[in-house]
Amino acid sequence: MVFFDTGWEFPGLLDHIDLLERKTGIEIVRLKPDRSFDAWMTKHYLPNQNRIGYGWPSPKRRWCTREKFGAINKYCKPFTPYIECIGFAADEFDRTLRTMAARRINKKNTSIRFPLIEWKITEADALKYCYEKGYDWGGLYKVFHRVSCFCCPLQRIGGLKKLRKHFPDLWKKMLKMDSRIEKNRGFRGYKTVHNLEERFADEEKQLTISRIIQ
């Protein structure tokens, strides 16, 4: 079992990985990027563009995904041929097709399987089973529908609002990260995290005023 630690994980997710290893007795190989994601985002020199840092990932610039898959492929290569099992659920069909298309690139002598899909297990089924076995991810799935890197710019606005409300320390960390980016600071829709902070704070203020008036 392989887990890629981006350095941007929720603490509860890291605790879950440790718990899973202890309870199952299965060794979990923890991979990390050769260079921290913070460094890629803020310090990596891009000579062709004459700037420092990739900036926040975006739908067309998913350097984070490239680093993740690159590290996993590098680790798995000595075991070729091998079968790669990915835990997508039966109701994640579109996501599965996208992943298969991406992972087939330069993947010779390997095959990909999706056990949960083969067993017709949905996201809700899988989550219920995990809860019954004592895995709760520190309550993350009580707050979020889907969990990835806490600072992922590709998550929905609703998820970012929940992050700000329930994990204020991580939100403050995102603001600091945002401040360190020299160029290409666009976090979501060409907005920075600081822009979103202003928006969310203003929405909270307007909601408070509305409640007082009522």
TrEMBL record:
GO molecular function, one term: catalytic activity
Pfam family membership, one: PAPS_reduct
Membrane-spanning intervals of the chain: none
Chain ranges of the Phosphoadenosine phosphosulphate reductase domain: 2-153
Species the sequence originates in: marine sediment metagenome
Gene3D superfamilies found in the cross-reference section: HUPs
Protein name listed in UniProt: Phosphoadenosine phosphosulphate reductase domain-containing protein
PANTHER family: PHOSPHOADENOSINE PHOSPHOSULFATE REDUCTASE (PTHR43196:SF2), SULFATE ADENYLYLTRANSFERASE SUBUNIT 2 (PTHR43196)
